[in-house]
Specification:
disordered N terminus; extended; 11 helices; Chitinase A, domain 3; alpha+beta; 343 residues; single chain; two-stranded antiparallel sheet
Length: 343
């Protein structure tokens, strides 16, 4: 099957017809099955829709995209996927009949999807060269992250998200140090006219960003720390915690996958940097100034991150925190790859 994609530029916001997401989902499955028609046999054909065939290969392709699918669920999932592919084929045929593929908006989105798929496939091919971590590397990672494994804790955290300027952080830190408990500190915030949101959350060590975890691991129950945040400052109080360690044997599969993923990510990042370094990129029109501003902003952000790291020393409340604050949004965390798979 030969498919030609044409791109026609069009300015302004692009609307999205209601049928388009279904068509785009169908595109991947249809493209995946384009080369199977000559080799298809009764055993490979799952269904016929008019003159078109839906093959087992197409079903398996979609099935492989399903995450956390248990083996015993595969049969039921395959049947559901087949029904979905039948519906997609019907809508695809109607779209072709109405020449929807010639709509400039659809052509543009198909072109974008094609570019994304090919670029991602190339980077994944580069990432396949990543070496599997050795047992020694896994053991070292386990030993280097005691707060995440050997000394892992479950934290009951109280959180204050404060709207403040960067130059107010030293005073906030001093007031937190001087406060007898978190209630006294919140009274100070109210009297100072500083807006804040309070919340409480139960977080395992792996659900916290590594820098935050490293700082929290040094605190005892009832102690707190303040650090910069995008909107001002964030105060975390360890209202309570309990030790729940993870052995190296338990952590080994997750650590291995984590280290492998990190190596794959690094290979892809390095490849993109290499490609950019060897390419001639010329910004045109209004993008010339915006590109320069973005570059300057990136440098400032890097400098700001360094400064934040050095100035965000944890402040400590010496007495246990007061009663839990009202439940709110909880913490914002990167989850460290979902805790390296540790529950």
């Amino acid at each position: 099957m030969n498919i030609t994609l044409r791109h026609r530029a069009r300015s302004g916001a692009l609307g999205q017809p209601r049928w388009l997401p279904l068509l785009l989902i169908a595109t991947t499955a249809v493209l995946a099955g384009c080369g199977d028609k000559k080799d298809s046999s009764p055993s490979q054909t799952a269904a016929r829709v008019g003159k078109a065939e839906i093959t087992v290969h197409q079903i398996n392709f979609v099935l492989q995209q399903q995450r956390n699918l248990r083996p015993e669920q595969a049969d039921a999932a395959s049947k559901q996927i087949l029904e979905r592919l039948i519906e997609q084929q019907l809508t695809l045929e109607k779209a072709e009949e109405l020449k929807v593929d010639r709509d400039p908006r659809v052509m543009q989105q198909l072109d974008a999807a094609r570019r994304e798929v090919l670029a991602r496939a190339y980077l994944e091919k580069i990432a396949d060269a990543a070496a599997k971590p050795t047992p020694e590397e896994i053991a070292k990672y386990y030993a280097d992250k005691p707060a995440l494994f050997r000394e892992r804790r479950i934290y009951n955290l109280q959180e204050l998200s404060i709207e403040a300027q960067p130059n107010q952080l030293p005073e906030l830190r001093d007031k937190l140090n001087a406060a007898k408990n978190i209630n006294e500190f919140t009274e100070y915030l109210k009297n100072a006219g500083l807006r804040f949101q309070a919340g409480q959350a139960l977080r395992a060590a792996e659900q916290l960003p590594i820098p935050t975890l490293d700082a929290l691991a040094k605190l005892q129950d009832g102690q707190a720390m303040v650090m910069p945040s995008p909107t001002g400052a964030q105060v975390l109080v360890v209202a309570g915690s309990r030790l729940q360690p993870v052995t190296e044997e338990q952590a080994r599969p997750a650590i291995e996958q984590f280290l492998l993923n990190e190596r794959r990510r690094k290979l892809m990042e390095d490849e993109v940097k290499t490609l950019r370094a060897g390419a001639k990129v010329e910004y045109v029109g209004s993008f010339v100034q915006s590109a320069a501003s973005a570059a300057a902003g990136g440098a400032s952000a890097a400098a700001g991150a360094t400064t934040a790291t050095t100035t965000a020393a944890p402040a400590v409340v010496t007495e246990p925190a007061a009663a839990p604050l009202p439940a709110a949004s909880g913490l914002s965390s990167s989850d460290i790859n979902k805790g390296l798979g540790i529950k």
